[in-house]
Amino acid sequence: MRFFNSLKGNHPVTIGGPSSQEVVRNDSRNRQEKRTYSTEQLGLPPPGPPPSHHTQYQTSSSLPPSYPEYAPSPAPPPSHQHHERPLMLDTPPQGPPPYHDWTVIPDTALLPPPPSVGHESGIAGNADSHEADRAHDWCKRNPLVFPHQPTQAQAGAVEKGDVRLMKPKEYRGELLMLSTGVWQGSTRAGSTDSCLLTSSPLYFAYTDSPTHTGHAKTIYFELEITSLGYGSRTDESSIAIGYCAMPYPTWRMPGWERASLAVHSDDGHRYVNDTWGGKDFTTPFTAGDTVGIGMSFSLPENPPEYNVAPEQSPLKNQVEIFFTRNGTKEGGWNLHEELDHETDQGIDGLDGLFDLYGAIGIFGGAEFRAYLRRDEWSWRPQ
């Protein structure tokens, strides 16, 4: 037995193949015994390089047969590309940022004017709500009259200023024609509202509308105030100048009811179908002032297409209203400006589709002269 042990020697017991390791342990007889265990049994990685470093994958042209779609791009990786400046961030500016002087007030000359401020009531407040309700009902029962085509004689008389003023039953005073197109009037102190109207339209929709003629049209007349209130501090008086379409309730000042506009002397406000307090426009005018009001009708800037039927055409006149004082233009407004939906009642009847008459409104005591003839005007059209 000892002979065989000497032949065997103190060799370890080998388990596994070449990828195994030797382990020395003591047996019960205090003898060292070497045994070999596989790497799988010990939980260790196998010897040698990983599969990706195998010689068959070391060349750049060969790929693992199971991953052909992951071929590398022939270009260098993005981190190795050369750029003149960073991809995400620009070069910061040199020096401090520019200084903005916040104390400089910007030029507002090119901005549109602010909208006019509306008022809930006028300064004088001479008319009560009962008269306003009566006028509204009257307008509902009496719709606007469609325009008529004037005769050659009618159109010629208006062009020369040969126009009369009609005195309504509410008018308490005198009214005289001094000459062709020149009228003088006076009312007593305490007179109620009344509205004088021209006997003929100053604007004929059939013959004057730019949408029919292709030419602009301007109408205008003046009013000289010789006395207002007769010097009495207790007599509230006012006078108004404007235009309206027919029919109109003549116990109401122009500008208060439908299809009418006017500028009033007591507050300088402009009224366009406004039963409230009008809108800020100019300073009040009084005795010694000669005021005038005009309306300019022109073609729209963007006419509709030619293939649109006339009844479907959105073509409308452009209308500008202007006001003069003592021969000088003092202001104006566009009829189609933005309206206040709570107080404004629209511009129907004033946009050149109906005949328009000159209107002079009076309450209280006043003396005036009306100039309907061109050569009597203090303002000279250019």
How would you describe the overall organization of this protein?
The structure is a single chain. With 382 residues, the chain is an alpha+beta fold. Helices cover 11% and strands 26% of the residues. It contains 6 helices and 15 strands. The radius of gyration is 50 Å and the shape is elongated. 27% of the residues are buried.
Give a quick set of tags describing it.
alpha+beta; 382 residues; elongated; six-stranded antiparallel β-sheet; 15 strands; seven-stranded antiparallel β-sheet; disordered N terminus
Give the structure's gist in a few sentences.
The chain has helices at residues 2-8, 39-42, 129-141, 152-160, 205-208, 210-213, and strands spanning 20-26, 32-38, 165-166, 173-179, 182-187, 194-198, 217-228, 238-244, 260-264, 270-272, 290-298, 318-325, 328-334, 357-363, 366-371. With 382 residues, it is of the alpha+beta class.
